[in-house]
């Protein structure tokens, strides 16, 4: 019986609480540990070429434990700084219909507050 566990290819679904129980003739004991899985972007949003009136869907998928949180951002054309888009906190950003004011550079910022991590998708 092994006294350890090895996870060779880890992803967010492997994260969580693990309990080790030891039993012998003298009794038993246990210990608990939480496995946190660092953020990784699995799918970056891809460039989209559209015309006024078209619909566009951008997708950003990340993996971690605890589950990642998303915030879509658009680059301000004047300052060049990225600014959060109110209410856009899902893995997909849908703009339908698109108009001139929507043209620009987008990215998603992904965070895991519990382990104080954040990463940003490719622009």
What structural category arises from helix and sheet content?
mainly beta
- Percentage of residues in strands: over 45%
Flag low-confidence runs.
none
Strand element count: 10
Q: Number of helix segments?
A: 0
Strand order of the largest sheet: 7-6-9-10
Distance between the termini: 49 Å
Q: Based on CA inertia axes, which overall geometry fits?
A: elongated
- Average residue pLDDT: 92
Q: What about the largest sheet? A: 4 strands, antiparallel
Helix fraction by DSSP (H/I, runs of at least 4)? under 10%
What does the model show?
The chain has 123 residues and is mainly β. Helices cover 0% and strands 48% of the residues. It is built from no helices and ten strands. Strand 1 and strand 2 (27-35) form a beta hairpin. The model has no long low-confidence stretch (mean pLDDT 92).
SSE map:
Blueprint: E1 16-24, E2 27-35, E3 37-43, E4 56-59, E5 61-65, E6 69-75, E7 82-84, E8 92-95, E9 106-112, E10 117-120
Antiparallel strand pairs: 1-2, 3-5, 4-8, 6-7, 6-9, 9-10
């Amino acid at each position: 019986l092994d006294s350890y566990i090895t996870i060779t290819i880890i992803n967010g679904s492997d994260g969580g609480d693990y309990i080790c129980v030891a039993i012998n003739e003298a009794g038993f004991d246990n210990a608990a540990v939480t496995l946190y899985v660092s953020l990784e972007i699995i799918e970056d949003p891809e460039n989209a070429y559209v015309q006024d009136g078209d619909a566009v869907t951008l997708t950003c998928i990340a993996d971690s434990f605890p589950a990642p949180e998303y915030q879509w951002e658009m680059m301000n054309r004047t300052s060049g700084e990225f600014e959060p888009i109110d209410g856009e906190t899902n893995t997909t950003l849908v703009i339908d219909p698109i108009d001139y004011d929507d043209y620009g550079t987008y990215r998603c910022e992904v965070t895991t507050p519990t382990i104080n991590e954040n990463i940003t998708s490719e622009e």
